[in-house]
Amino acid sequence: MKSPSDLADQVLEVSIVGSFTKLGYRARKGMSRWESLENVARSENFQGRRVVLTGATSGIGAAAARTMVDLGAELHIVGRDAERTRHAAEDLSQRPGAITVTAHIADLTDLCAVSRMLDTFPEGSIDALVHNAGALVHQYQATNAHEQTYTAQVLAPQLMTERLLPQLSPGGRVVVVSSGGMYTEPLRPNAMEFGRKEYDGVRAYARAKRAQVELVQQWSRKYADTRVSFHSMHPGWADTPGVRSSLPGFYRITKAVLRNPDEGADTLVWLVVAPQSELGSGNFWLDRRPRSIHRLPSTRTSESEQSELFRLVTDQVETVVGDCADS
């Protein structure tokens, strides 16, 4: 028999607005009496754990970076803007109790730049790799012969995961920050990338987020023998600079109920610090609970389609990086 909090959680989840906004976050936190991130990190001996985080200069990524530094992480942040990324690392390093914060510069829309950054990435074990970077853009742009939203949010995470996987420690984890917008798009492995003529920034973003979630399930299968776990999550609807600039209409309508960045980052950080026994692998999370990756029958996915996506993305990354080396 389900508990009252489980039933209330289900009602919130069905409502979407009640689930994705601050109303859902605060209701679930109170009903389930979440343990604080500080207590979870302390019980898991998180102090000194090494975390790689993309997109740490603003919004949810910046909130997650602050929290993980405060919890004792040795943090490596990856960003495309050298000045902003280094400034963020300096600010984080000044927080009380900060251990080490290192800036790495790479534009995730350019796989050649990502590959060069990975070539010089420091040796040593990594406890968590967090793919958080991602922006919704309304104009078509391409790099390395691929549209930039698809490159930054699908190809770059694949490249970074493959290259850093040998450094991930047993019990380590890979976390991908997706979006509830992915519920609107199906997985069509050979049509995940928009071309110039039909480009729609909102749909391109949602389609890339769908691909991320499906890839995480494939990573969980393909890399099962590594003792690394793989997770995707969505932060709900949060008040971030990206939402304000890229979705101004949505922001005007929903701003009164949007989560703050710390609320959006809570599950991300929890997935990094929580006991592995509570997480499994391959799940899609919201508010510290695994959720279905489908809300519409039209988006149902087969394992063969997931495998096809994995093969396609792997081949695309290999081709681009090979061309980078030859140029």
Describe the structure.
There is one protein chain. This protein is of the alpha/beta class and 327 residues long. The chain has one domain (15-326): NAD(P)-binding Rossmann-like Domain (Rossmann fold), CATH 3.40.50. It has helices spanning 4-15, 17-20, 22-32, 37-43, 59-70, 82-93, 111-119, 148-164, 201-222, 241-246, 248-254, 261-273, 303-326; strands at 50-54, 74-79, 101-105, 126-131, 142-143, 146-147, 168-177, 229-233, 283-286, 289-291. The strands form 2 sheets. The protein has an 8-stranded mixed β-sheet with strand order 3-2-1-4-7-8-9-10, sandwiched between helices. Strands 5-6 form a two-stranded antiparallel sheet. Helix 9 (201-222) links the parallel strand 7 (168-177) and strand 8 (229-233). The radius of gyration is 19 Å and the shape is globular.
Main attributes of the structure:
48% helix, alpha/beta, eight-stranded mixed beta sheet, two-stranded antiparallel ribbon, 327 residues, Rossmann fold
